[in-house]
Amino acid sequence: xxxxxxxxVASVVLAIAAGGxxxxxxxxxxxxxHPGNMPSMVTHNVNTLISDSGVTQYKIVTPVWYVYDQVxxxxxxxxKGLYLQKFDPQFRVTATVAAxxxxxxxxxxxxxxxxxxxxxxxxxxxxxxxxxxWDQRRQRLYSDTFIHIENSTHVLEGTGFExxxxxxxxxxxxxxxxxPVDRDNLxxxx
Length: 190
Fold this sequence. Notes:
Layout: H1 2-21, E1 41-52, E2 55-68, E3 75-78, E4 82-87, E5 93-99, E6 101-105, E7 110-121, E8 125-135, E9 140-150, E10 154-164, E11 170-180
Antiparallel strand pairs: 1-2, 2-3, 2-4, 3-6, 4-5, 5-7, 6-7, 7-8, 8-9, 9-10, 10-11
């Protein structure tokens, strides 16, 4: 045991001595850094309110938020998911959006939501899709992928989707099914 301890101390002393005898070498890492490839801001555990003209419009909750301001097309990136609530002027939740990841292109005011996108509209409408775009300038939501919509009277499914951003006027571009729902006669699973 004592021999092992002495051997370990000798190794440490030799390593320090060897390090002291080597010529100091500087490495310039700045030539490998490209500001356009790096986020200008990284924020963790975000829970924030976003307002416009002094009126709170949205609440964003996300584990991590990257801001890329030094790229040709500036964007925000939410790689670990995003949860968003939209408020009316009385601060009531009118809609929610959840996605596995999201990007917001600031100049275009365009959201790209991906992976298990779930949108709800008060009181109980549900929209599910693997990918949804939200064009805030044109106040429009759309998708080119599968869409599943549940409301109080129907379940709608298909491919492709267009809607106003309030989810009140929407259509499925290539419907595959419209299923009436009689909620009064549904029996619970046993």
